Amino acid sequence: MITTPLSLFDTRTRTLSAVTISDEKAVRIYSCGPTVYRDAHVGNLRTFLLSDLIIRTLTFAGFKSSLIQNITDVGHMSEDLHEDKMLTESAKRNLDPFAIAREYEDRFHKDLGLIGIRPATAYPRASESIELMQELIGKLIAQGNAYVGEDFSVYFAAQSFPSYGEISGNRLDALQPGHRYEYTDDGAKRFHADWALWKAAGNRTQMVWDSPWGPGFPGWHIECSAMSLHFLAGHVDLHLGGIDLRFPHHENERAQSNAAAGYEVVAHWIHGEHLLFEGRKMSKSAGNVVLVSDIAARGLDPLALRLTFLENRYRSQIDLTWDALTAADATITRWRKKLKDWGPSTPTDESAAIIRSLSATLMNDLATAELAIELRRIERDESIAPGVRAEIFRAFDQIFALELDRADVEVTLTPEQSNLLAQRATARANKDYGRSDELRDQLLALKIAVKDGPTGQSYEVIS
Ligand code: AMP
Ligand code: ZN
Description:
CATH architecture of the largest domain: 3-Layer(aba) Sandwich
Largest sheet: 4 strands, parallel
Number of domains: 3
Distance between the termini: 48 Å
Radius of gyration: 26 Å
Number of helices: 14
Strand order of the largest sheet: 4-3-9-10
Bound molecules: adenosine monophosphate, zinc ion
Shape: globular
């Protein structure tokens, strides 16, 4: 077993502990993926960014990793309606559920790319892993951890797993019957905290598969056990997800995986805190969703979202605002310009020492927020030679991934800015200097500095 210098907060043991590589080859990471019935909102993306930050940090420190992220395209029941999220959307749009799934899966990958998240090693789909799940369910039944209910659904017997509750603190003896922690509350379960591994089809006709227990479809929790055990060869060094997944999703996954394997399958459970917007957790049901496309539509670089996330620790809540995104956008533009002005990197003993010390800061529970503060300090520190500053910024842009060396600093203007620029060009062509000056002031208020030269007007975005 290899111990890496990165330590993270493990939800189950409630301690900060070093990330380890159990097979001595690569850190094996599993991250709960999207349910592809709608666009991922930027809250989801904050959680999806966590694996990218961890992997980039490990790579920076010289370690390899592999990442599996599942695509849930079947079996995720909504808590309020007790309906499959995919099928509800399919009925609403009168479209084949698989067509919807592929559409949003595609958009999920595009969104990840826009905020600099590198692709995972593999993205297995639930609908293509039915056999894997059935094998695992069969094993759990054979071992006495699961049973076929009178309704032909298969349930996990929660009481067969004595250490249930270690991640969330929700112990079985404290869970009250009637508490809605699982979508099925019918009478086929033997114990109120049991949950469905396989759901009998009943009247359902779409997304149904044959099984040894009759036609049906898999539960959501078994998907992550089956995929992590299979694709990461029986051991997960880091398991990631949003904090809301601690219970029941991860608690149930742990019970299923450990019961099947006979040992603790996941070494570390890491949870990212929520993104809020206007003071409330961002979610479709709260109606406060922001998409990456909304950020681009305001003329902001989607990487401004990435920097906003980096300026907070993954374990702290963030209340996102447009002002914060605008400020982050300006910072990125300024850093790109600075890097051009500073010229080529000049590695020296001084830059190596600063990089070493900042990387030690970062390794302590992925302290991206502290690192961002330090980078801002170094940016202003005239006692450090420009080439040395450039070297430091380029080093950490391997993790921050803000494309600070983007060859041509592109500027995306808002429709309002473009419109005013066009109006001013026309005013000047018409020799309407009063109007042209007025428009210049309006543009300045929008952070566009207009200059007039022999070839016409040009502009610069100021920060
Ligand atoms: P879903 O597609 O709903 O299954 O969610 C995908 C991931 O996004 C899960 O890991 C959730 O924990 C996470 N998530 C959902 N809402 C938020 C939020 N507001 N902030 C951060 N993560 C979230
Ligand atoms: Zn999961």
